[in-house]
Structures are given as structure tokens and as C-alpha cells.
Amino acid sequence: MASTTTTTAAQVWRPDQNIFAPEDALPDAAILQHSTVSANIEGDAPSMRVGYISDAAAAYHNEGATLTDTDPDLDEIVVITQEIGFYHEMTRDQYRKTNTPEQLAQSVARSITRLADKSFLSEANPTSPAVRPIGGLENYTGLSSQTAVATNIDKLIDLEATVRSAGAEPTAWVMAPDAWAALRKMKQVSSGGNLGLLGSGTEDAKPYLLSIPVFLNSQMSSKTGLLVDKNEIVSAVSGLEVDVDHSAAFKSVKVAIRGTWRIGYGVPRPTRIGKFTLT
């Protein structure tokens, strides 16, 4: 008696399922650029537990004397994840048109990246007891912050000093486009003219502020920016899973396309991340 297997069944009975490394499929996602990916989590229930040590202070010691006890604290944070999904149906005839699958794949990637960036950067914190959608980095408790940045960048200089004093080595500024525009419009008071505080910027291939690269992201809140050290942000991401099913809308002769990606993050030492807002 012959067996029915996926190798002999028609395509409709064995829909395609594809999993891509997120670094390849979603290279511009902020969580991949500005965090340290440390785990792959599947499902709402599992969490990533990140252990870290709060350093104890060393002490001076004299020869022959008893060493001072120093007890570092062993701490942890719990990282939960949020799944992001995309679903669309189109007629089989449209799906078969030249370049449609490729263009649709790019659209799925853009849509998931936008929502992932909002989740990672600016999503509002959920109201307890809810834990999802997870709040964005802007709203993380305990960040170093500066508000009412207005006519100069003195407060940003102070913010950099604060996070460095806490132990950070900043890797990027991440800010809303209008935040960067406002900084670019600041004028040099001593020039008596219209010379920008940050220069014209017309010759820059990549923007920098205080020698730290600047990344603009439309999912940041208006006139808000972050000073991040990617080594201080621990994240969990899954593979990008894309499914194409020719049977889900069988009666309508449609093809169903679904994309899912799961992300989450945590900051063990939030004072090493900076946030600023402009007036």
C-alpha cells in the first residue's frame, strides 16, 4: 500500500514555509543595529533571564592587613518578547504576475521592520497587569535623561558625560527626524550670522554628533532622541518566518501570505542609556 507523503502530494497539501536570518531579511531593524542579540525565543510564555553583576567597590590594602570583604550583587532582568505579524491575501492570478512575489516580500519586510522599530524604540508601556505590547526604549524605567534641549547642545554634552560616568561606551544617537532637524537649525551665537552650530552638513556622508554616529528613525517620538550603547541592551529575536499558502483561501482562488517575527529586549543597567527631548 502506497503512503502519502509531502514529497508526492500536490503543492496545495504542502504549503511553503521559509525562515530567514533576521540580519539578512531585516538588516535595517533598529533592534538588530542597536542591541546585542543573545537568544532566540518562540512563544509568549518563555522568557529570557539575563544575569548580571552589580560590581562591589574595591578597597585599598596594606601589607599584612586583612582584606576588606567586597560582595558583588548577583542580579537578573527578565526579558519577555512580542510577536509581530503580517497577513495578506491576493488572487492566484495576481500572485503569478512577474515580480509580484519579490515585491510582496519586500513589502512584508518593510511592514514588519516599521512595527518592530516602534516596539523597540517608542511603544508606550502597557497598563498593569498587562505585559504586552512591550514598551519601547524611550519609556524604559531608569534611563539617564535631559529635557528641554533648546538653543545649544550643552545638555547633550552633559548627557554623554552622564552615561559614560555610569560605565557606557555610546555607540549611536537614535533620534526622530525632526529632532535632528532642530539640532541642525541651532545657530552659533558668536558668529552673529546664520552659521549652524553643527555646520552645514552638506558634505557629510554620515551624520555625527559629538563624534558619535547619528541614526534617524521615523518611529521615534517627535523631538526625542536616545544615546545608546548596544552592548548594554540585550535582545532576543526569532527568525523571520514567511509562509505562503495556496489553500487557506481555496474557495476564493487566493494565495495567503503570512510573516511573523518575535522580538524582545532588556537593559540591565538603564543609567547607561540616555534620552533627551527638545522643546
Automatic annotation (TrEMBL):
Question: Mainly localized where?
Answer: virion
- Any Pfam family matching the protein: Phage_capsid
Every Phage capsid-like C-terminal domain range? 55-273
**Where in the cell does this protein reside?**
Virion
Q: What is this protein called?
A: Phage capsid protein
- Origin organism of this chain? Mycolicibacterium fortuitum (Mycobacterium fortuitum)
